[in-house]
Amino acid sequence: MRSTRLISHLVSLGNYFWGGFAGLAGCFCFFAVWQLAHELYGSYVLPSPQQTLQAMILLVQTDKFIAMAKITAERSFLGFAIAGSIGILSGVLCGYSFAAIRLMRPIIIILLGVPPIGWIVLALIWFENGGGSVVMTIAVASFPLIFINSVEAIATRDRSLDDMARAFNIGILKRFRTITFPQMVSFIFPALSLSAGSAWKVAVMAELLSYSGGLGGLLFEARSTFDVPEVTAIILIIVCFALITEFGIIHPIREFFESWRHASDPWGVKR
Any idea where the ABC transmembrane type-1 domain is (predicted)? Predict the structure, then answer.
């Protein structure tokens, strides 16, 4: 039994890394289009991928970059963690009550309608130029999407499975862990993926406007000196951090929780 499970995990891990080659092919196509745009418009408008990579290597080697990247990462993960924990918990609780869903729907629509730049301005007024404004902006911008998906996960669950488990006198916590939560994964993790990616973008945007350090502060300095290669390098670094968060953290966790979907396939993996 253990050997079969080990083989299942190894094959799943191999398929996961093998699927990364398609992503690499897409990246190479993107760099090819980037190089073409550079040749058309020149380095002042758009540096070449080689120039950007050179600027990125020089930037990463500085002690200042490490300190600033750490600040942005801490703010991004803190804001994302606040939005994720509150959004999932409140979404699960509201999902069990249709009255609560109808009550919260207009509030969520209002929150979705406010652009992140609006929250940044309000956060700057409330928290001034500090890390609190960045964390608050990330949390408020990410909360509605996570909340909506959590509510939908509970509201659209298979209630017949709950009824069957209740007939066997299974407790509510065990029913949630073994029946409800596996159904929630396909709803929650797409929202977490989008929110994690937007957390980096919102954090840098808030830091840029408030000049509160972090990668946004570096971007502000590079823009002030018209250092286009460094600006492009910082943007590429932010994209890399977002991709690492998505494919290095969230996606493997999702595959772990959704392994039950492929239990009936040979070796427990997709054909």
Answer: 69-249
The residues near 60 (Cβ < 8 Å, ≥ 6 apart) are 237
Q: Residues near 37 by Cβ (< 8 Å), separated by ≥ 6?
A: 46
Q: Which amino acid is at 142?
A: S
Cβ(187)–Cβ(149) below 8 Å: yes
Q: Is the pTM of this model over 0.70?
A: yes
Tokens representing residue 72 in the block: 């942005």
Residue 87 falls in which region: left (phi positive, over 0), alpha (psi -120 to 50) or beta: alpha
pLDDT tens string 237-253:
998 898 888 888 888 88
> Which residue is associated with the tokens 């996606």?
251
Q: Is the dihedral of CA 71, 119, 144, 237 positive or negative?
A: negative
- What is the number of domains present in the chain? 1
Domain, as residue range, for 129? 49-260
